[in-house]
Amino acid sequence: MLASAAMALDLSLTEEQKGLIQTARDFTKKEIIPVAGKYDESGEFPREIFKNAWETGLMNCEIPEAYGGLGLGCHDHCLIQEEVAFGCAGFNTSLAANALGSMPVLIAGTEAQKQKYLGRLTEEYIFAAYCCSEPDAGSDVAGISTKVEKKGDKYVLNGQKRWITNGGVASWYTVLATFDRGMKHKGIAMFIVDADLPGVKVGRKEDKMGHRASNTCDVLFEDVELPLDALLGTENSGFKIAMQTFDRSRPWIAASACGVIRRSLEESRAYALERKTFGVPIANHQAIQFMIAEMAIAYEASSLLCHKAAWSVDQGDLNAIVSSFAKAYSSDKAMECSTNAVQIFGGYGYTKEYPVEKLMRDAKLLQIYEGTSQIQRMVIAKHVLS
Fold first, then answer.
1. Residue 370 appears among annotated catalytic residues
2. Which residue among 82, 134, 357, 370 is the active-site one?
3. CB distance 139 to 181 below 8 Å
4. Domain that holds residue 365
5. Which of 107, 127, 147 corresponds to the end of one domain?
6. Is the pLDDT of residue 139 over 80?
């Protein structure tokens, strides 16, 4: 038993995975880091850079080869995301949002739906978006109010979605809607909605604290008519599909957090060795050493949790607890480490001359989207106490 367990636990990376990391690292160094500050300042959507990422294979990488994708696993994808988030978490959010938007199709789509919509993402440089959150329903997915009615041979969709990443640039959406809000999760369905359908409108673009290179908008549906084959799964399986999607995507948030933590560590280390106070580099001061040591510990622990969660997904075990562990811990540590990076830089850290203030702003969203840190703890506590 012990031998079998030891053989099952292998933390080494394959040559292919090392190649993925190097490709993403080189892309980030060349394409993202030099311009991350510019796009953070302007809030502009970096279309050309994302096109280069699409051509390089850094988008849609979990789409199976049968539909033109690379067929990478969750673990492979997380390795890529950490490298991209090291350069800019906002860039990574937009790239990952394509995977998020397409994941319900991958999970519950028919063969025809997969061929059409997953195939479009690999054949064309386009974006997808996942429409779950609403003005009055974020973490409470069962409380959504976007309404769908079945009328003869079509569905009619009405409602408003908020905080939709890629919402203003997507060619198609996966959308959660309810037949009857009183039924809570039992009345929820998931649909594929083309962005060019009559009645689909893009609302206001959010002016965000961080992740400013990502496009975040309201998406509105006004009497949008959908064919029956727009339904994903069954009319009462939308909530289940959404939860399975989050189980698949939460390791990605942990991977992004790992990128932020590692960048915080590397920037702090370099600055501490260079900056002098009282005649010596601040790296000589134990107070600074302890903060840097905590960052190193946080990176190792977050990375291991992320890899365990991603490995579980690749084994077919969509374990919400492992994903919740990874998401809650790593996002909190990203916030802590980036805040400490600003502290190590002192006054310089509070200015845009150095990248650590951006790391701090970007880290905050990791504690909020796809289930807040508090929601993760509720899920974990329920599991522990059950």
1. yes
2. 370
3. no
4. 239-385
5. 127
6. no
**One domain for residues 380 and 267:** yes
- Find the mean pLDDT for residues 332-350: 98
69 in the same domain as 162: no
| Residue 149 belongs to domain with CATH number | 2.40.110.10
Longest pairwise C-alpha distance within the chain: 80
Domain boundary among the residues 219, 238, 257 is at 238
* pLDDT on residue 380: 95
Residue 64: which of 102, 13, 95 has the closest Cα? 102
Q: List pLDDT tens digits, range 2-28.
A: 333 334 667 899 999 999 999 999 999
Each residue's pLDDT tens digit, 273-312? 999 999 999 999 999 999 999 999 999 999 999 999 999 9
DSSP H helices in 28-70 = 36-42, 47-56
38 CB burial (10 A radius; 0-12, 13-18, 19+): exposed
Cross-strand pairs, 175: 131, 191
What is the mean predicted confidence (pLDDT) over 68-84? 97
- How far apart, in whole angstroms, are the C-alpha atoms of residue 51 and residue 120? 14
